[in-house]
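Continuing the batch. This is chain 6 of the set; chains 1 through 5 are on the previous pages. Same settings as before, nothing changed between runs. Recording input and output for traceability.
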Amino acid sequence: MRVLVAEDERELADLVAEGLRRHAMAVDVAYDGAAATERLAVHDYDVLVLDRDLPAVHGDDICRDLARAGARTRILMLTAAASVPERVAGLGLGADDYLPKPFDYAELVARVQALGRRSRAPVAPVLTRGGLVLDTRHLQASRDGRHLRLSLKEFAVLEVLMRADGAVVSAEALLESAWDEHADPFTSAVRVIISRLRGKLGDPPCIHTVPGAGYRL
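Output for chain 6:
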């Protein structure tokens, strides 16, 4: 899942981003509305965690523009404006959910995960294909009953491949879905993770390279 955190309180923004990364999410951070707008124009995010009172471009304007454009990005407003009229106004702008500060972190993660599921075609939280089982809520994976000890990045890449349901996924699409904006598209990062996954998944091989196209599970 690809997430953008737009929050001008830098310490809070970084803490939220780091926590979401621990749940196998690829997270970018924008400290003002202008930076958030630029990133939204470049990347296809599943979820936007949006502070309403952003400098440069107000969070309300960002929310309104995404809603008008029909973007698939789901919006979680995270703000100190917590009264009922303010929540109603925020949801009226097009936000999908609203969480006032201060917040419980476990609740934030759960809400982001729920919105992420809504941003894609509906699938069960537990993915299965052949003998592979991937529990996206508890970050657990197994093959033929054997527990797999995967890194967060390996888990994220395997989730993208399983959600593709046998379709070919390009290296570029894997970078867009499982890495943040700091990933270098000219590195071998995808190839290295695929190699590690193949080793952990064992035989018979289940991740296949399609020359010139990408990878298929």
